[in-house]
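worker-3 :: picked RidA family protein
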Amino acid sequence: MSKQIVYTDQAPAPIGPYSQAVKIGDTLYVSGQIAAELAPLGDIQAETRKVMENMGAILRAASMDYANVVKATIFVKDMNNFAAINEIYGSFFTGDFPARETVEVARLPKDVNVEISVIAVK
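worker-3 :: tokens ->
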């Protein structure tokens, strides 16, 4: 199987040596997305919404959508934001939710408050 790099200008460009997403066969691996373009940071719901919108743009670039997501990983700076993140994150899915873990971390790139990566299958 060949590896296809997926890129869209509808989501922020990578800030390091990685791709927005890589597709192998019918599986898409989307790198962690952040909302660094929001300023000032601090509204966790706005950040989460922007992250999910960026994710959607990448999924669309691979001819997929949120229904194709089978696994998500969420990194948060403050687990006290768990409920607020869940509210926004959950609104992007209908029906069967993907598998997921949520991990509190000390710091995220660009000092954002939330980062989300996903795996999607067509």
